[in-house]
Amino acid sequence: MKFYEQTCKSLYYNPDCLESVHPNNSDSFSSGFSVVSNVSKYHYKKMVYMMIITAVLAISVLYFFYWLKDRNSNYWKKKGVPTISSSDQREIFSGIITGKKSIMEMFSAMYKKIEGEKFAGYFQFFTPTIMIRDIDLINHILIKDFTHFEDRGPPQDKTIDLFGLSVTNLSGDEWRAARHKLTPTFTTGKLKIMFESMKECSEEAVLFLKDKTGQDMETINLLRKIIVKIIASAAFGLSINTFNEKEAMYNDFIKATSKSFNPSRILLLKFTVLNALPIIRKIFKFKMISEDTNNFFINLTKDIIKFREETGTRRNDFIQLMIDEKKKEQELLHHEKNPISCDEYENEDKELLDQLKNTPASSSKWSNSSEMFTEEFIAAQTFLFISGGSDATATTLSFVLYELAVNQDVQKRVKKEITDILSSHEFDYEAVKKMVYLEQVINETLRLHTITPVLARYCTKEYSIPETDVILDKGTAVVIPAVSLHMDPQYFPEPNKFNPDRFENMEAVPKGVFFPFGSGPRICIGMRLATVEMKIILANFLLNYTIVLSEKTKLPLKITKHSIFNNVDGGIWIKFEKDK
After folding, report:
1. Domains delineated in the chain
2. pTM of the predicted model, to two decimals?
3. 260 contacts: CB under 8 Å, gap ≥ 6
């Protein structure tokens, strides 16, 4: 009867019920029975409908995964491309999820799985992906046939944060226009302008080390302080005492730059998923960098531009170069093209400018108007310059110091080169350019301790692989395993040995096997700036100190499993010993 009473209460005021029940109705029992019967039928029908809908959804989901599995299994086979099996993929990728493998180890394992093949296919979530081993094909993709692979990945939503608006992540017409207009800011003339500020910052680091002689120093923290100081000066014209941790501006910069790239399993997973599935980033507006970091660089850029425009102040820094480009852009607003004139540059800029031959400037409105150099665009490039550059450069220098400490014969040879050059030459851009063995040491470090494991490219239009019947569809992801090529004994005998003489003659290094900064038109635009910066820092260190390995360094070195870059567990510790 309770069910009857509850049913009556629920239906008494229901105008859609065919038989309402009233407590005073003499036929309440029969009416109630009728209502219960009707309700039971209603619930029964509803239950049947829900079961049908659930079954349809379940069948649809199962069919989808079956279709996906079948598609993943047959997609590359139908194209005649060797595949990395599903079981191998699960084994390799599970290491990243569980934290048992680093990105470096994952791609090295994949490279070994396809030994003997020129390339092999697999899937990253829903994206068909092909890994390339053949160096001739690598050169085609990166350089000769670049117009088919000009993007690093699917188009990013540049409205979400500065990450999407930086030149590294722009695509299509927007990237071509940005690359053409930003290239002049990294030529020899501009490097010479920024040289003095970089040199002064590194000299201050030497003074800081004066009271630290013989002490154990953790390299990444030390080098990050130096590089943030250099880049803050070179990028914004700001003088920050990064050796005083109580200084507010230093703390703001460190927080803003390190937060985006510090080793973190969550960051690694976020970076992997959002790059493989950009649609998620677009739909849910996920930010690759924090709101605080995003606002920090936008507000700092706006304040600097406003101050310089109001006061007429000029500085020899990166942001000034972009402000000048913005003015040039406005002056050339009505011109059809904005070509780069080789007459304005020096001979050593030829390689930089030659890369642009494969990327004709876009004719789109975006490339020919003043819309490009907005305050947000300038902020995005300075964010990339500082955040990406500081961590990657600090990591590379950390490994250089480690190798110099372990290989004292190499260190002595570098020190001799530096002292010999500076005994008859002022410490300027030309002197640093002559330090060729020092550059060989940096190159060998970048080979042995690869910072970025792969070069990623995205097929922007259908591509027929030369000398095969294989056609890559638009939207195919291309992976070039730099870390594996750098350690392949076929190209670098005794790959685990630190040997700077490998790079004595760069012409002897096979093309398509060494990618310290990438390759082709998508090569790191700040490559030469980073190299000069590292050489200045190392030269100043070695002029004053001998680098010795600290016992606090855990040997053999172990790479952090959840790091985007090649960071070391426990860090690299050294001592700066005063030369006798």
Report:
1. 2-58 (no CATH), 149-452+518-578 (1.10.630.10)
2. 0.82
3. 288, 289, 290, 293, 387
